[in-house]
Amino acid sequence: MSVGELSRPSLAQRLWIYQRERFPLGKTSILLAVFSAASLSVSAHLSRDGLPAFTTFAGAWVIVLILFFQLRACDEIKDRDDDRRFRPERPIPRGLVSLRLIAGIGLAGVPFAAAIAAMLDLALLVPLALVWFWLALMTAEFFVPDWLKQRRFLYLVSHMAIMPLIDLFETACQWLPRHGAPPAGLAWFLGLSFANGCVLELGRKVWAPENERRGVETYSGLLGAPRAATLWAIAASAAFALLIGTGSATGSVIVDGGIGAVALTVLWAAALRFARRPDVAGQKLIDSMAGAWVLICYATAGFAPLIGAVR
User: Fold this and answer.
1) Are 8 and 97 in contact (CB under 8 A)?
2) CB 44, CB 184: distance < 8 Å
3) Quick one: DSSP state of residue 183?
4) Which whole-number Å values give the CA distances from 203 to 21, 124, 213, 244, in the listed order?
5) 92 CB-near residues (< 8 Å, 6+ apart)
6) SS3 of 258, please?
7) How far is CA 118 from the centre of its chain?
8) What CA–CA distances, in Å, run from 255 to 49, 171, 246, 266, 289?
9) Closest CA to 68 of 97, 95, 31
């Protein structure tokens, strides 16, 4: 055994480093717990049902955590050539872990997620399969990778469409076993998931000019920093409108509107600050605000109706 092999971290250590850099479990688990619980709560209130059992909450959360890791694994697959050329510091191109390993872990999650879904209700395999079908199309770039990459906003829409599909599955964990069909008003919440996906995606690709890199496509590089920041804030404004629609359907429009308006004001302030002075600090603020906005949206949409229920 060589000195290099002796000093190489173990597989567990390397996977821990990978998750820290590419799929931070702590932060992701919390965000997805809120997302999952909010989805089930909204569905229950729209259906005029009581909240589902804890096992439903736990099962839906574990499945969505698997789905989001699979999203990361599929990103690694479709971006492998660009990562090797332009982002060699990432874990896979630098040799920390292999693409085969990460893809294998993602695939191993398929039977595990399917088994949990089947235990909750066998019919849930249908919306779950729909998510995986769309994920496979995304990984193949819908079989037109060059054409799609030249149309960045169509690329954004086609890839963010998976968010309402995931939310359709999450809410189905509540409405499908009880009613067999989604409740009226659910389209507002599914639309909110799509808009929030755009907020996250745009927010992580609004960069300061000094951070722009050859071969790395960003919306700030495509549109310029001020316009990209404005587009990001407009996407959040669309999400706010859909949050209001969700609140109207669940009976919590005042709470949703009040909390959402405050959060949106802070978000627009961050966008305007970056538009005037596009620096690294502003870039980090936008990235952080994107995550905070999504967390606030789901927490508000999902848990505000409970306030009215308690009253």
Assistant:
1) no
2) no
3) P
4) 18, 32, 17, 22
5) 76, 80, 83, 98, 99, 102
6) helix
7) 24
8) 21, 22, 11, 17, 20
9) 31
Half-sphere exposure of 252 (CA within 13 A, CB side): 27
104's tokens: 């294998």
**Nearest to 166, CA basis, from 189, 148, 149, 145:** 189
Reported pTM: 0.93
Helix and strand counts by DSSP (H, E) for the chain: 15, 0
Average pLDDT over residues 258-274: 98
CA dist 83 and 97 (Å) reads 14
* Tens of pLDDT, residues 169-192: 999 999 999 999 999 999 999 999
Q: At residue 10, what are phi and psi to the nearest 5 degrees?
A: -70, 170
Contact 4, 14 (CB under 8 A): no
Q: What is the pLDDT of residue 307?
A: 76
The position carrying tokens 């019919």 is: 123
Q: Is the pLDDT of residue 310 over 70?
A: no
What's the CA gap between 160 and 117, in Å, rounded? 23
The mean of the pLDDT values for the chain is 94
Residue 251: exposure state from Cβ atoms within 10 A (0-12, 13-18, ≥19): middle
Distances (CA, A) of 120 to 27, 67, 114, 175: 26, 17, 10, 12
Terminal-to-terminal C-alpha distance of the chain: 68
CA–CA distance, 281 with 272 (Å, rounded to integer) = 13
User: 149 near 141, Cβ under 8 Å?
Assistant: yes
- Judged on CB neighbours under 10 Å (0-12, 13-18, 19+), 296 is buried
Tell whether the model's pLDDT for residue 258 goes beyond 70.
yes
Token couple for 211: 């951070």
Length of the chain as a residue count = 311
Residue whose structure tokens are 């906003």: 153
User: By the 8 A CB rule, do 31 and 67 touch?
Assistant: no
